[in-house]
Amino acid sequence: MMKTSPLLRNLSVQLLFLKNSTTTTRVFSCTNHRNLSTNGDVSINTNNKPIIVTLFPGNGVGPVVARSVKEVLSMAQVPIRWEEHYVGDVVDSTTQSYLTRESLDSVLRNGVGLKAPVWKPLGKNIRSLYLTVRDELRFHTNVKLFNSIYGHKPRKDDVDLVTISEQASIPVVIGADESKTSMQLAEYAFEYAKIHERHKVSAIHEPQITTKTDALFLKCCREVANKYPEIKYEELTIEDCGILLVKNHRHLDVLVMHRFSDPIICDHCADLVGGLSFIPSCNIGEGNIALAEAVPGTTPEIDDMNLANPTPLLLSAVMMLQHLKLHDKADQIHDAIIKTIAEGKYQTADIGGTSTTKDVTKSICNHLPNLPLVSSPFITNISTSANADPSPSYPIQTTLFPGLGIGPDITESVKQVLSTAEVPIKWEEHFVGNKEDQRTKSYLTWESLESIRKNGAGIKAPMWKPIGNAQRSIYHAFREELSLYASVKLFNSLYGYKPRKNDVDIVTVTQQMRGVDESQVCAHVAEYAFYYARTHGRDKVSAIHEPEITTKTDGLFLKCCREVANKYPEIRYEEITREACVIKLATDHAYFDVLAVDRFSDYSVSNDCAALVGGLRLVPSCNIGEGGIALAEAVPGTEPDFTEKNLANPTPLLLSTVMMLHHLKLHDKADRITKAIVKTIAQGTHQTADVGGICATTCVTKAICNNI
Hints:
With 708 residues, this protein is of the alpha/beta class. Helix content is 37%, strand content 19%.
């Protein structure tokens, strides 16, 4: 139930009452961030094309909280495509800082960006990152929102303040540039107040400094105030403002201030609401460029520990969405954040809790409207391509192996679900032969392998055949004939299946091939693991190896991983033995992100990861080969006891099929099917016997189709 708060003067600030069985929790849901562009027109993204936004993942805790933002915005179906840029390790001569010219040009080109915490040491003739961004992008204004949020225990429970601070650099000679900057600042403050129905603007100044600059800042504020007679205007010294913030903060509304007053006033405001942990911020520049950023810093002491609070950057991302006029999406995400804070169950250590970054992110995702409960976006673009192509008007030819045992049953389920979702695919089916094909030395026919080579993508249901003398197994035939060098498995907790841990989000990229070209295979696996991490917002790759075997093979796998790691300085790299990895999975699974696994460790590591999420029956898998070939498959076997009994679980092959759809860049179709699967699981009414239910394969399939 939404009510207008009698405590807050801004009509856009509302009280949200969350009720549970025992208590009523009051939450301030502030929407005064709406439309930073100070343009009253509300537009909607109707062209169905994603908006390109520059993202600086930063360093320290930056990549962790940036990944949280991407996850939440993805779950909210925000039409954004990220263009990521990282801080370099060497100074760019064109910017005289660690920021590259390309990254700044990206913001200028896109007109909007999001910056996670980032820091680099300064040296002689090196500009700080802050000054580089401010000067190169010509920012004139910084906007911060200070609001009390229940669940966070603010000092004052009715704070609703906006600070608008000067950003431009200090000129050598006071003149036209300084006058222009001060005028831009004043105009923005009053226009902001008018659009957001604020009733007063207070100009905060430092008397001694103001005198030296001929009171240029106050002069501009007075001139602009005359254009807005409906808005009250006052001038306060920094000392008087500080006293008012302590004694009567409700006297203040919009505070516009000179650059010299900003640090002191913002610290006072933050103290009222409980610190900087919930302060969103956005910088505005010429041409209406906007760069949202989190106020807290890189926090190196919790770097790589999954303990950072993602809320500041998420709230800043909400400001960015309002600037883009994506108001509905911004409000949905903002409400989900507020509800999570109000519940008080998921809080990071900086505000007195014990939750991880992933815990908080998951809770926010679960509070988004009309979405199933999930721990994270389950499947994303296995092709490691950032570009999303629209669905083609013609069917895509795809190879399908219905397999043996339960294979035909669950294959039929896949075909039915994809048909319901209107996926533009034409199946080219191939079956396992009853006798050996001399060309493949296995039960796989040469024609079936040629089909995958021609189509570039396929799905393989469970299949098995006995091996005779000089015969290759079906597994080896696929792997070697198609040059499948890597297997990608996704391990995620799914509500409704009672996983051992409810916040698992791990990807394994495993070496598949061996032989004379093993060096090339290892290099392929390493390259894929790091590129996958970069394109999916992952912040760490762990190389898992078997020490005794690694020593005997001169550490070829680790050597390749180290060489590739040097090309990806923004992604942390580590090497862990298989035994240490198994222990860490049992004691602190959140420590891991992407695991690059040598072929000797795959079986053990995959089983331990699967144990965390409820078994291999919930794990999708896709094999990647040279030339971009992708062969998705279900991890479980043929299960002959369930053959032709309509009792097999179709979920593993369906989730693997979703991976294939992402590889084909059919992202919209893949997302629709994923949500239908996850929603069916979360409902808990349609489950097969292997996960404790009594439903038939066809019943589960029908439920998924009904949820599409």
